[in-house]
Amino acid sequence: MPKTVDRTLPADGEVMFNVEEKLFPDIKAKPGQKAFVFIHTVPYEGSVLLVNLLTSTRLVRKGFDVSIVLYGPGVLAAAGTRGYPAVGQAAFPGHLAINEQLKTLLKEGATIYACRFAMGALYGFGEDDLIPGVTPFSPLDVLDAALTAWSEGAFQINTWTV
Prior knowledge:
single chain; alpha/beta; five-stranded parallel sheet; 17% strand; globular
């Protein structure tokens, strides 16, 4: 069957969507409100981790006291030794996007934790290999961080991928 619909592609810069309409209120944190973002996902295997970090950045900018809990493969995101051909050098555009977003979060006041068990037992790197400012924590703290978030009525995002 031959093609029956022809369409001209829009030119660069043409707007295809209503970018001004917002349907939900722009919620800001009340003083002292917290958000916990739990991340158990492999960095760079998909967009989940970067999207969670971008969302965490929005939460910080909305005034929330943000804690990011990296555990399981999520700890790989906080490796301060990433880069190619040298540490801190990007082999291609976006190569270090996750590291840069973590650094932005730290600069803007988020607290980032990385599980010692996952670092050592699963991936063979230590506390000194973390991005400066990331706090290593006991694997027993994964549950207690979640319970803390729950008991304090904090907003939570939980992401699991394997």
